[in-house]
Every structure is written in C-alpha cells, then in structure tokens.
Design goal:
27% of the residues lie in helices and 30% in strands. It is an alpha+beta fold and 100 residues long. The protein is globular and about 40 Å long.
C-alpha cells in the first residue's frame, strides 16, 4: 500500500473556527462529488480568505469564512477565475472557450 502525506498550506498549527468549518464543508463536497479525484493541494489563501482543495482536474472546492462551498475553475492562460455554485457546472465549464 502506497501512502502519501497531505499538507494543509497557509494555516498555522491552530486553525480558526471559520477556516475549520470551511475545510469541513470542502471535504464534505469532495466526498459527495469528486471522491477519488487526485488532490493537488489543500490550503488557505490569506489574500482571498478562502480555504480550498485544489483538484487535478482543474476544479478547486473552496469556502470563505465557513460559508457554503463554491467551485472555482481558473483559466491558466489569462488568470481569469470563474466561480460556480455546483460541481457539475464547474465540471462542464470550458474556461478556454470563454476567453476566446
């Protein structure tokens, strides 16, 4: 069995209530909609206030201040970010078509 460590980036050893709630919601959404999808990174973005799980498929599951999760798709060519209320919408969105 091959095991790897998952690091939570951008948080200290003590996680604030809102960030803990947000991570809980993100992991719940991961379990419901994308279990088995490779996780690239888990963390907290101090600039935006979002906690997130970044997936290999290009979708990030995120929550700000423990609020409902949003699903983020980024166009890495121009940096444009698109937020969606459902995983399905994020999964079917084509950011590179939108940029043309």
């Amino acid at each position: 069995m091959n095991t790897q460590n998952l690091t939570i980036n951008g948080l200290s050893d003590s996680i604030a209530y809102c960030e803990a709630q947000g991570l809980s919601l993100c992991f719940s959404a991961y379990a419901d909609y994308s279990a088995g999808e490779e996780i690239l990174e888990v963390g907290f973005n101090s600039n935006s206030g979002y906690v997130y799980i970044a997936l290999e498929n290009g979708i990030s599951i995120c929550s700000m201040l423990g609020q409902e999760v949003e699903y983020l798709v980024t166009n890495f060519d121009n940096g444009e970010e698109y937020f969606f209320p459902t995983y399905h919408e994020a999964e079917t969105f084509e950011p590179y078509e939108e940029a043309e």
